[in-house]
Amino acid sequence: MTMPVSPIRRLLVANRGEIARRVFRTCRDLGIETVAVFSDADADAPHVAEADHAVRLGGVRPADTYLSVEKIIEAARASGADAVHPGYGFLSENAAFARAVPEAGLTWVGPPAGAVAAMGSKIEAKALMAGAGVPVLPGFVAGPGYSADDLEGDLDAVFTRMSGTASGRAVPLLVKASAGGGGRGMRVVRLTDDLPEAVESARREAASAFGDGTVFVEPLLEGARHIEVQILADGHGTVWALGERECSIQRRHQKVVEETPSPAISPAMRARLLDAAVTAARAIGYVGAGTVEFLVRDETVAFLEMNTRLQVEHPVTECVHGVDLVEWQLRIAEGARLPASPPGPSGHAVEVRLYAEDPARDWLPQSGVLHRFEVPGVDSRFAPVPGGRHGLRLDSGVEDGSEIGVHYDPMLAKVVSYGASRPDAVRRLAAALAGARIHGLVTNRDLLVEVLRHPAFLAGDTHTGFLEEHGLTGPPAPGRERPELVRLSALAAALAGAAANRAAATVQAGLPSGWRNVVSQPQRAAFAEAEISYRITRDGLRAEGFPDTVLVGATPSLVVLETSGVRHRFAVARYDGVTHVDSPLGSVRLTPLARLPEPVEHVLPGSLVAPMPGTVLRVDVKTGETVGAGQVVVVLEAMKMEHRIAAPAPGTVAAVNVTPGRQVEAGAVLAVIEEQT
């Protein structure tokens, strides 16, 4: 790698959201000017406002903006940047981009293009690791020109390569994108006949997210832990292995909880993993920050992939090892040498990824306005707590009022807890999440809290199938719901609403909240989640279904209730169409029902509607065609993911209202299925 003579003066970050803000924070500490790039959808995003300079890329689709090598290079030239940091995702593992940046006379803050090409391709990485003696899983590659029809004709050969025999066609299998990660371009196959369609679907998603549709197939090693090693290498031959990270808690192959050190890796196994990671880096002359990932089950170790970039979960390593990985990325790009040995670990750090997604709608990504985003007790943002102290760190791509669109990843933030021990870090993180005020969008917050407080997680008994094993993949089951909390929060919302009405009254404002001429008639408040009936009498609150509840005080934004002798404070926030109630008991989202509802537009029975705004990728049926239950009718793309719209029951296609490439809004009728009678 050719090292620049002069230090970096102005850095362009070829990314968006929280990683752009994270890199900017280090740049401010080092006195480096910053340049943001942004799509039209991100014009008002926080990362744009925080940069010293910003360049519009034009367009909203990733392919037209953050995945456009030409636009990024031109933005660097136009802004006077002398260096480029790729962040993660998008072009961060694109070898052509890694070559184009130095060819344009700019400093590339990343590994050499050759290393990106070799290890950024999971297929080549596996071959290199196998050659170095690192255990790998067998695999089958489906390149860009390999069609589903080709695969159907080669199924015996595919399964022979997987297991050494075509008999039985062993499953499960995993289809993975050769480029990129984050669960995109990945499919689990449990039925052999589903493999061709899984490969095609993964290929389309990978091409959209990473610009490369190559995928490969390998056996799915169930019950294993996902362990990765953070490496950092300079251009002078020094390679650090900064411990391992446990990333086993995953939903649909997307990491949601990460920690270091792993609660289950023995010192001997740790030494094996770190040595393998260093060997991998040296084998390709690696320079910069990267991650080598493994599956570990008992004493079995299998290489997964190498990520030639900074990882989303890098903050836990920064906390435990006391390093700024972005700073070292920049200094290494300037030609600096690493010390001979890395700093040792201290304490324990856990990170969770907070996503805007709805568990009641199969974790569908959410879009809209994030009215409020507040995590209590945060000690530091985008950096470890000063002085190496234990505490809470927040890396977010959003602020109050941020608009969450449909074009990009729905991750809102990473919340990181660093403590003297694993129990300390986990307890602090769970409490912070439970007490967070997140208004306007449905998130995975409750799932994260439930995982952190689950006995199996606390015991360190984790693996990649943790959520499935413990029934945490869907909305709360009946035993996990909190109907009492919902009703009590609805009562608080009703009382706060009455207080707001009295505060806004222009006549008789001195009357108590909820006062009525006919004292026998109660006040009523209707929410989709609960209906509340109460009266305010000379003796206080009389609420139906709340015999032991006393009203201590109520304002438009705060209600204090005493239940069975214990007082609770409820913070109430009202927005258009939604009310949020936060208390130490938990957070509840309520949907007020109008007294006189507006007429609604009804759709025909059997209508398949778009669950969110997106682009029609594929229409798999024609009018008049007979379909079976669960058969895919339309495939949408939104937030860089594919969403399959399937027939709910057997029937006949009565209408198809969309064509590939069309943009649709949430609720748009895509097709109509006349069910069989």
Explain how this protein is built.
It is a single chain. The N and C termini lie far apart (69 Å). The protein has a 9-stranded mixed sheet with strand order 14-13-10-11-12-15-23-21-20. Helix content is 26%, strand content 31%. With 677 residues, the chain is α+β, with helices and mostly antiparallel strands. It is globular, with a radius of gyration of 27 Å. The mean pLDDT is 89. Strand 31 (578-583) and strand 32 (586-590) form a beta hairpin. The longest helix is centred in the C-terminal third of the chain and has 22 residues, at 483-504. It has 17 helices and 40 strands.
Give the overall silhouette.
globular
Rg, rounded, reads 27 Å
Total helices: the number is 17
What would the average pLDDT be, to the nearest integer? Answer: 89
Order of strands in the sheet with the most strands? Answer: 14-13-10-11-12-15-23-21-20
Percent range of helical residues: 25-40%
Question: How far is the first residue's CA from the last residue's CA?
Answer: 69 Å
What structural class should be given to the helix and strand makeup? alpha+beta
Task: Write down how many β-strands occur, each being a DSSP E stretch of 2 or more residues.
Answer: 40
Sheet with most strands: 9 strands, mixed
Parts with pLDDT < 50 across at least 5 consecutive residues: none
Strand content: 25-35%
Give keywords.
single chain; 677 residues; alpha+beta; nine-stranded mixed beta sheet; five-stranded parallel beta sheet; 17 helices; 40 strands; 26% helix; globular
